[in-house]
Amino acid sequence: MSFLTPAKRINKLGSAKSGVHHFVGQRVSAIALALSMPVFVIALAFSGAPDPAASRAFFGSAWGAILTLITLTATLYHMRLGLQVVVEDYIHTSGARIFLLIANTLITYGLWLAGAYALIRLAVTG
Asked: Which domains, from first to last, does the chain contain?
């Protein structure tokens, strides 16, 4: 039995001050994906993508690399925010939650670095 008043219990469970930022980030990344993904897919399709040389030329060009990087960044950021919500909502063990949130962030950054490295390599080698 707790001797705390209802107001005192509520004050301890207040806002973390990050909900609005997360909400806006999720919506902005969704809009960025809605705009960049069709452009990326259409540009890749018209570049002759099944041909390896044409794909290398597309990803090695300035236009293709920038479009790919924008789409990759929006996709990975949106994925990271979505998985963060899933972990926070459904993982109740504190240690597992912290581990998964850190792993989510590190894996997302690793995937972005791998994609950026691949684009740089394609741009350098042509």
From this structure: 23-125 (1.20.1300.10)
